[in-house]
């Protein structure tokens, strides 16, 4: 009944706001390729028992497609990607410990309708909405959720949030990477998300969020700040998550990055994250998988990134778990990325 009500809301809203719909104009492309990135990385991982679990050269492709209707404000989007796990979009090249693999899946597929200049509704398989937070304490950026979403943005007013997002959907099917194996979940609701984000100043954005996930009540908050160029740190982000019921617990993460001046050309950074395993646990299973480079428990890491050309960058990571609980201990990787999206700018 609840899922039907959500669907009915999505179908009715365009009509309710139709009077506010403005012409999109001929400047909007009919077909877009917002992202077309190819990657290569070397990754090393060992666990708390000292066993090396990854020592491999891997590759990745991430492509995002978007189709727009200029007259009606309707659009459709999709993410096509390598990787056979919800928490990873990488595939093994065969060089290293793991055998070669070739996997390419349609991981998200959704339809949206702009119902005004400041609002749109979406239905289908989509990326998660993060507010000012990250995958450190929330869903891995490679993952997905099915459902119905209302996004209201560019709001003005001293006491109003800049953006509000409401999502009603399903989180699960971690072993079904292809979206066509998950679309039937549009008839089920086990996840409700309400996010409010506010640009408090030119240099600071904050968000607060309530989630209801498989019976868990969760509160998330995050803030990201851009600090003066002369400071040792230019980008700062802090975020928290709290489980309010059934063995209440909480976690937090802090990220600091230097992005300006000579040292900033390498974007050196450091982070600390602490996500107790119990935050997202329902019974013996995890109801949500956070970013795989963070994992659960207490962890510290250092990062760096160099923009070699406008389209090519290289990044590196070394991270260490600070506990002896089961899980990965050391993780190190170096990643090269080439962005191809500009090649498709000629599309109509």
Task: Provide an overview of this structure.
The N terminus is likely disordered. Helix content is 5%, strand content 51%. The strands form 2 sheets. The chain has a 16-stranded antiparallel barrel. It is mainly beta. It has one domain: Porin. Strand 9 and strand 10 form a beta hairpin. The chain contains 2 helices and 19 strands. 31% of the residues are buried.
How many domains? The number is 1
Characterize the overall form: globular
Characterize the biggest β-sheet: 16 strands, antiparallel, barrel
How many beta-strand segments?
19
Strand content: over 45%
With strands numbered from the N-terminus, the spatial order across the biggest sheet is 1-2-3-5-6-7-8-9-10-11-12-13-14-17-18-19
CATH architecture title? Beta Barrel
Order of helices and strands: HEEEEEEEEEEEEEHEEEEEE
The helix fraction, in percent, is under 10%
Name of the CATH first level:
Mainly Beta
Structural class: mainly beta
Radius of gyration, in angstroms, nearest whole number: 21 Å
Here the CATH topology equals: Porin
On the 0-100 scale, what is the average pLDDT? Answer: 91
Q: Helical element count?
A: 2
